[in-house]
Amino acid sequence: MKVIHLLAFLLLLAVSGHTSTPFDHYFTTETCRVDFHLSGDAMHTKAYVLKISREPIWGGRQTADGQFMNRGDYRFVVTDSLSGQVLYSDGFNALFREWQTTPEALQLGKTFEQTILFPFPKQTVQVRIESRKSLDEWSTLSEFYIRPEDKLIVRNQSPKVPFKTLQKFNDPSKAVDIAILAEGYTARERNRFYDDARQLMKYLLEHEPFKKYASQLNFYAVAVPSEESGISEPHNDEWKNTALGSHFHTFYSKRYLMTGNVFRVMDFASVVPADVVYILSNTTHYGGGGIYNYYALTAARGRDAASVAVHEFGHSFAGLADEYFYENGDVLDQTYDTAVEPWEPNITTLQQFNRKWSQLLPADSPIPTPLPADSTLHRSTQLTGVFEGAGYQSKGIYRPAPDCRMETNRAPGFCPVCEKAVEERIKLLTN
Ligand SMILES: [Zn+2]
User: Fold this and answer.
1) How far is the CA of 97 from the centre of ligand 1 (A)?
2) Domains of the chain by range and CATH?
3) 3 pLDDT exceeds 70?
4) Can you tell me the distance from the alpha carbon of 136 to that of 139, in angstroms, rounded to the nearest whole number?
5) pLDDT by residue (tens digit) across 43-68?
6) Contact call for residues 349 and 396 (beta carbons, < 8 A)
7) Alpha-carbon distance 423 to 210, whole Å?
8) Long-range pairs for 168-172 at CB < 8 Å and ≥24 separation?
9) Distance in Å, CA 418 to ligand 1 centroid
10) Positive or negative CA dihedral for 295, 301, 302, 303?
11) Distance 395 CA to ligand 1 centre (A)
C-alpha cells in the first residue's frame, strides 16, 4: 500500500514537473523581520518584541533544516508550531552585551535595539530568543508565535535611496550578500561613497578566504544620504546630523565607533538583499567596531583602513574573537572567564579544546605551544599551535597562531583557524 502511494506521488511530481523542497513547504521568499529590545543591566537581560514585519525579498539561505552554527552570545530558533521541528536558527551578538560589562551597567538599566531576520513562514511558527549559558546550554529570553495571516504584521516599505550593485555573480539565495551602507556622506558626496565602497570590497577580496570565494560574494552599496558630512566625535564636543547616528567614543572609548540605531540601519539594509551589513563611515579617523551577525562599522579611509575593515568584518561575519591581549590585562579585563570555554572559534581557554582547532594542530605539537626560538617567526600567521595570550588577557586564553588579522594590523591575513571559521560561514550562507 505504501509503495503504491509513493509511486503515485512520484508520478504526480513527474507530471507537475517540479519537486517541492522543505523550504517551499514552510517558507515564502519574503523576509520576516522581528524588531525587539534587549534591556537590562549588568546582571539582568530581558527581550521585548517591538514589531513584526514582512519585507519583500528573502536573500538568505533557502533551507528549512534548522542548521545552526554554534556562534554568538544569543540565538533565535524558529520552529513549526505543530510538529515542533526546528526550521531555522542563527546566532548573533549585541552591543547590549558589551555594554553590560561597562561600569555604567552597574548603575542603571538601559535598552538596545536588535533585529533578527528569517524567511517569512507559510504556517504558524514559534520563535524563541535565547541567551547562551555555556557552549551547549541556552536560556529563553522570549517566546512567541507568528501567524502569517495576522493582519497586524507590518508591510515594510524600503526607504527610497539610490544604490549600486558593485559585484553580483550569483542568485542572492546562493550568495553571501553584503550590503555596504553610507554613513556621514551627504547626497553630493554620493560618488565618493561609491568609490570608498569599491575600495572596501577590494580590501576584503584581497584576503583569504574571501578571495577564494569571490564569485559567491555579492556586494551592494546603498547611498544613504546624511544631512551633514563626517562623523560625530563626542570626545571633541562635535556632533553631526548623520543618517545612522553613529559616533566615536562609544561607552566612553575614543576609538569605538558604533551606532545604537539598529532599526534605522536595517531599514536601509532592506533596500538590497543583505546577509551581512557593513556601515562605511565618512571619516579618516581611526576607529570602528564589529559584532557578530549585527553589523561592522569602520572609517572609510585613513591609517590602517584596510586592516581594520577586514578585522571588524571578521567579528561581524564569522564571530571571530580578538586575538590580541594586554600584558597584565588578566586582572583588568573580565570579558572572558578562563574557567569556561568561549564559543568563539579562534580562542580557547583549554576547557574544551577538542571543540576548537585540535584537528589543525601539527602532530606532537605541545599544548600550550611556546613561541618558536626563531624570533622571525613570532609574527607568523601560518604556524598553528596553542599560543598563550588572546581575548585581551595575557594568561589563561590561547590563540591559534603567533599573529593573525584578528591580532594586529601588521599581519598579512587571517591565521588558518580564522580562515576556516570564515569559510564555514560562507558555506552555510551559500548552501
Ligand atoms: Zn586568527
Assistant:
1) 23
2) 22-155 (2.60.40.3250), 163-318 (3.40.390.10), 325-337+360-408 (no CATH)
3) no
4) 11
5) 999 999 999 999 998 989 999 998 89
6) yes
7) 8
8) 168/218, 168/219, 168/220, 169/215, 169/216, 169/218, 170/215, 170/216, 170/218, 170/430, 172/57, 172/59, 172/60, 172/218, 172/273
9) 4
10) positive
11) 17
Find out whether 194 and 148 touch, Cβ atoms under 8 Å.
no
Residue whose entry in the numeric block shows the C-alpha cell 594568561: 395
Distance 309 CA to ligand 1 centre (A): 15
298 Cα: distance to centroid of ligand 1 (angstroms): 20
Distance 293 CA to ligand 1 centre (A): 18
Give yes or no for a contact between 85 and 79, defined as CB atoms under 8 angstroms apart.
Answer: yes
Give the pTM: 0.93
Q: How far is the CA of 419 from the centre of ligand 1 (A)?
A: 7
CA dihedral sign, ordered 98, 395, 134, 91: positive
For residues 187-200, give the mean pLDDT: 98
Gap from CA of 402 to ligand 1 centroid (Å): 9
pLDDT at 332 over 70: no
Question: How many whole angstroms from 413 Cα to the centroid of ligand 1?
Answer: 8
Question: Please, are residues 259 and 265 in contact by the beta-carbon 8 Å criterion?
Answer: yes
Distance 189 CA to ligand 1 centre (A): 36
Tens digit of pLDDT for each residue in 132-190?
999 999 999 999 999 999 999 999 788 999 999 999 988 888 899 999 999 999 999 99
What percent of the chain is predicted at pLDDT more than 70? 94
CA 62–ligand 1 middle distance (angstroms): 30
CA 319 to ligand 1 center in whole angstroms? 11
What one-letter code names the amino acid at 303? R
Per-residue model confidence (pLDDT) at position 11: 46
Compute the distance from residue 10 Cα to the ligand 1 centre, in Å. 49
- Is the pLDDT at 380 greater than 70? The verdict is yes
Going from the Cα of 314 to the center of ligand 1, the distance in angstroms, rounded, reads 9
The CA 379 to ligand 1 mean position distance, Å, reads 12
What is the rounded average pLDDT of the residues 29-52? 97
pLDDT of 274 reads 94
At residue 219, the 3 state secondary structure works out as strand
Q: What's the 390 CA to ligand 1 centre distance in angstroms? A: 10
Compute the distance from residue 158 Cα to the ligand 1 centre, in Å.
37
